[in-house]
Each structure stands twice: as structure tokens, then as C-alpha cells.
Amino acid sequence: MRDRGIARALSVSQGNLFKALSENRFLCTVFKVLPWLAVGGFAGLRLLQLSPTMAIGSGLCMAVAMILRRAAKKDVIASRILKKIGSPRVFRLVLGLLFGSSLWMSQTNPLFAQFFQVAEDFFNTTFPDAGDVVPLVFGVIRALFLLYIAVSLVRVIQSARNDDDWQQLARAPMIIVMAVVIGDVLATLVIGGA
Which of 61, 143, 158, 167, CA to CA, is 20 to 30 A from 192? Predict the structure, then answer.
């Protein structure tokens, strides 16, 4: 008889304990957030292993955000900048895009892919006496292409800020990017696996 009373008291106290734990708002919040933290921590560590540039970039973004918040308390211009870009929704969107794009890029095979790599390898094997001339020529072509894209991107962003017709400015760089991609694909088709 006495054992039943002890068992009943234990079951009542356990029931009260579970009820108290389920009503605790802090623990409910922890249990809701814990899976996200675990998945985010695992994905962050994996991304840090595969793409340390993303970790450095996101760290720099966080540092700039902290500096801007401190400066916004003292400076009117910094507070205006923060009001434009400081909404949590925009920040989460930018951070999500950075995370997703770097995760996607880290999973592509190879990370160091360059356009016209097959053509460069073909010329290196066809003209072995050329030495460093072939890599230099293809490096200059790549650098000029990337500089053109960067300058065009700056012009497009500037015209979009000024409420100009940015789509007309974006059309020419997109045509050139498509021409380079098609040229690279055609070079790969013609040359093969040289």
C-alpha cells in the first residue's frame, strides 16, 4: 500500500515537472531554435572548410555593420545610410544571398574554373615552346573581360540609382557575357579534351 502512494506521488511530481517545463517560455524558445542553431552551425563549419573567403567576407560585413551602428549614434550621415540599408529584412536577404551563393559555389566542381581554360590548354600543348606567352595572353583576356564587366556593373548600378534607363546599359554587357560563354563552349566543342 505504501509503495502505491510513493509511485503515485512520483507520477504526480513528474507530471507537474513536465507541465512546468512545457510552460517555461525560455525552454520553449530554446527547443524551437536549437535545431536551427545545430543545422546552421554544421553548415557554417562546412562552409568555413570549403570557402574561407565567405567566412572572412561575412565577418567583414558584421564588422562594418557594428562600426556603422556606433557611428550612427554620433553622425547624421551614417544614421541616414543605416536607415536606408539597416532594416533587418534587407540584411537577412543579403546575408542569405551571400550564404546561398557561396554554398552553391563551394559545391560546384571545380572551384577554380576559368573561361577559355580548354583553349589555353590546347595552345600550351600545341605550342610547347611558347613558354609563358600563352598563359599571359589568356590572363590578359580574362582580366580585360572582368574589368569590363566590373565597370559595366558600376555604370548600371549608378544609372539605376539615378532612375535612368539601366536596362539599356545592362544589355550590352549581357550580350558580351553571352558571347564569351558561347565562345568558350564552342572552343570546348571544337578542341575537345585536348
Answer: 143
